[in-house]
Amino acid sequence: MTTIRQDAWTADEDLILAEVVLRHIREGSTQLAAFEEIAERLSRTSAACGFRWNSTIRKKYESAIALAKKQRSKNKKGKAVQESKWQEETSEELTAQESPVEQVEQKPEQETEPASAKAEPVALTMEQVLDFLHDYHKNQQQAVAKDVESLKQENEALKQELEKVKEDKRIMAEDYRALLSIMDRARKMSGYQHASES
Hints:
This protein is mostly helical and about 200 residues long. About 85% of the residues lie in helices and about 0% in strands. The chain is built from 7 helices and no strands. It has helices at about 10-25, 30-40, 45-60, 60-95, 100-110, 115-120, 125-195. Helix 2 packs across helix 3 (about 45-60) and helix 3 (about 45-60) packs across helix 7. It starts with 10 loop residues before the first helix and ends with a helix.
């Protein structure tokens, strides 16, 4: 079980937080996953990590976030290009491995195919688009709800910590008043003793 730390964030911890979140953005992962990873590394709650990122660190790294998002989109495009190249190469290899008889048998069928059937783009229906948008909206709402819940938990923890600090302050004030009262009595008693001795 990880311990919940309530001490202040150090510069090194802020740096780790920024590096991990930016890496997750570049890799196309979620910030929630980043906060969970950081929470494990720093023995803090993921809510505390999210709160620290959103309240303080994010503002300092806006240009780095924009760069990470660009790298993420480049990585996605690069992967798509690599996959299409791999599919083409695999298709060419399979075609080359076929026997000449199979190639001859397939040629007449290929020639009879209409040109439109060879490379027809995938058409999406309005229903599919709406389903996608509905799912996307639902996922976004769930992510926001998780963020809100984690911020509520963080807020509650901070409220409890504030109450504890207030209580400690009140006890210290009472102790201080009691100490002053004792010192005042001691001063008066020493004054009486000096007076009675003389």
